[in-house]
Amino acid sequence: MSSDGLEVVAVHYDRAIVPRTDYQCYGVEDARISRVGDRYLMTTCSVSPERHSTTLYTSDDALDWRLEGIVLDHQNKDMLIFEGQPGGKYWAQTRPLGDLYFAYPPGSDWRAGPSINLATSPDALHWKPYDAPGIRPHAATLATARMGGGTPPILTDRGWLTLWHGVEPSGVVGIYRTYWSILDRDDPSKTLATEHTPLLEPAPELTDPIRDLMYLDNVVFTTGIANGGDHFVVASGEADLACRITHVPKAVFA
């Protein structure tokens, strides 16, 4: 892509990431790319009949990728590696799924359900879940009743900026919106600021020209962020049929 994200410069079909092992026989999806030091780290979901796992690829140039193997198992989706190493360790946001969630006590600020957890690693291969909770669904709103990570956290003057998705129950899959939080630079389990007004909402006008192909709507799913000077270049999927680029002024997060 061009530096502003608005022009496709080249498409490298010859370097496509394709299933290579039994645990990828149903496909590889949901890539998230972080640059830590001089290496690029890409997490993906690998799917097969026996498991739904998170796999890691590494690269020195973001073009040729090496499969490192499974790093998280048991439907632990939306793994996002921080673009930096607080305390000299690799950090990641994760989102384990399950069939049973115990309710919080009456009067709690939080809603039971999938939440954005944290994990640390000495080498980006072996991960230990962090003891403190990460970002949890707030009881005061249904708009984020389900949630998960969006973009890899990047360091700003205020702390780690993370964009994440919240899902409001509606229809088949719900309404997906993008929200943001600022995490403490030394202990990312501490949330310093969260904005409950959506940063991005679905934009039906973007998919109107291909409406006859649509099989769901009301979805914007953010997965990438890059520094654009006085703004961030944010990449999202729109209704699973289009790629969306949004320029978000940095002043929004000040």
- CATH architecture name: 5 Propeller
Broad CATH class: Mainly Beta
**Helix-strand topology string:** EEEEEEEEEEEEEEEE
Determine the fraction of residues in helical runs and give it as a percent range.
under 10%
User: Into which percentage range does the β-strand content fall?
Assistant: 35-45%
Mean pLDDT: 95
SS elements, strand count = 16
Instruction: Give the overall shape, derived from the CA principal axes.
Output: globular
Domains (count): 1
What ranges have pLDDT less than 50 throughout 5 or more consecutive residues?
none
**Overall radius of gyration:** 18 Å
Distance between the terminal alpha carbons, to the nearest Å? 27 Å
CATH fourth-tier homologous superfamily: Glycosyl hydrolase domain, family 43
- Assembly status: single chain
Report the biggest beta sheet as strand number plus sense, adding barrel if it closes: 5 strands, antiparallel
Query: Based on helices, strands and strand pairing, what is the structural class?
Result: mainly beta
Number of helices: 0
Q: Predict the CATH topology.
A: Tachylectin-2, Chain A
Protein name: Glycosidase
InterPro entries: Glyco_hydro_beta-prop_sf (IPR023296), Mannoside_phosphorylase (IPR007184)
Keywords: Glycosyltransferase, Transferase
Pfam families: Glyco_hydro_130
How is this structure best described in words?
- The chain is mainly beta and 254 residues long.
- It has one domain: 5 Propeller (Tachylectin-2, Chain A).
- 0% of the residues lie in helices and 44% in strands.
- It has no helices and 16 strands.
- Strands 9, 10, 11, 12 and 13 form a five-stranded antiparallel beta sheet that branches. It has a four-stranded antiparallel beta sheet with strand order 1-2-3-4, with no helix packed on it.
- β5 and β6 (90-96) form a beta hairpin.
- Belongs to the glycosyl hydrolase 130 family.
- This is Glycosidase.
- It comes from Sphingomonas floccifaciens.
- Keywords: Glycosyltransferase, Transferase.
- It holds the Pfam family Glyco_hydro_130.
